């Protein structure tokens, strides 16, 4: 699979607070970032991913290139929503510098940009930047959602036309809808090239599969703990059912093997004690006679004590 170093640039402007995407634009971005990280590292374990924001006073590198998912999560949680506009051009340039200083120079360079706010830069400036990025062999993918005004879309299309190279640069325009941003993202060339299966969709019969082809209907890359718990629960239930099945198949008398049965009656046909009953009566008589003898011996000892 492709060995890549990917910088993800998120839009943390005030526009990301809007709730036209489920559950909000910012939360939708966060979920998509998790999906992109999982897709890149699963496609090639040596691929690395970094994170930066481009809102507020200026772009900020939150996490340098890493294979540690925990650092990406920490970077997302530390990000604050600030500013009315984003610094798109400056953010792309800083992301390019971060890729330039990657440790593994054999990694291909890619930048994935989320944008959901108005673009302040003019088209000519963006086209010039796109040509520079193409010259440096950096592929750039845009995920446009939120403010999909014709002016914004036109600028992004012009950038995409001038940055396209051999490794492919893509523009995904995702309008609001009932589906999650990440669910729609996996159907675009940005992630489908990494072999990521959609988390929703239909089966061959046209009915809603609900599970998206994942075991138990849960994507292990997004919720590994839930997937593991469901798998363990299924295995325990399977073992319990197998145990019950074996118990039903065993003969009822099998558990009594080795225990001798007393078939002889206690009394014979004439009403006299049988062999087993006679033995028991003999034992009782023997016990009672021994008790009488002990009693007599005790009485004799008491008489001797009185005589003395």
User: Helical element count?
Assistant: 9
Q: What is the overall silhouette?
A: elongated
Strand % is: 5-15%
Could you spell the SSE succession in H and E letters? Answer: EHEEHHEHEHEHHHH
Radius of gyration: 40 Å
> Which residues sit in consecutive blocks of at least 5 with pLDDT less than 50?
197-213, 302-308
Number of strands: 6
How confident overall, as mean pLDDT?
Answer: 79
What structural class should be given to the helix and strand makeup? alpha/beta
Q: What profile does the largest beta sheet have?
A: 6 strands, mixed
Short description:
The protein has 308 residues and is an alpha/beta fold. It has 9 helices and 6 strands; from the N terminus they run βαββααβαβαβαααα.
